[in-house]
Amino acid sequence: MSSSEVRELEGQEARLTLPRFTYEDAWTLGTLLVSLARERRAPVAIDVRRGAQQLFHCALPGSSADNDAWIDRKRRVVERYGESSFLVGARFRAKGTTFEASSRLDPDRYAAHGGSFPIGVEGAGVIGSVTVSGLPQAEDHALVVEALERLLSSYGADAG
């Protein structure tokens, strides 16, 4: 992972800061992810949280309890670093090491693999997370980014 890829991931997080995040928004984001995953027949589990509260969870065919464990591990990275689990792992790789080797965190509790993304709200910072598990890490991450882009564009439609 190069420094330009790290900058690209940082840019995604800056661009995908939301104007608000309500319970209804959590439902919208979760159901967007379910729709996208079903279209692709993706065997994923999906989790949306605000703080410690789980606002949405869905497990699609082909996913397992193992995906829920991955969700927890990736989500803990977002909660600790305030950045996507993919970005945190990319930062370590850009330094020529790995998260597992250098973070000093228990790999049974933390995983800097793609798929968990901070829910950032303008003026409030990171207030939660959205996580997908079941695909290769870059695909988990891309699915979350696509859903957040759609959610963000829907806010513009609400204003009109």
Automatic annotation (TrEMBL):
InterPro entries assigned to the protein according to its UniProt record, in alphabetical order: PduO/GlcC-like (IPR005624), PduO/GlcC-like_sf (IPR038084), YBR137W-like (IPR010371)
Family annotation (NCBIfam families): PRK02487.1-5
Protein name: UPF0303 protein CP977_12760
Pfam families from the UniProt entry: HbpS-like (PF03928)
Coiled-coil ranges (or none): none
Family: Belongs to the UPF0303 family.
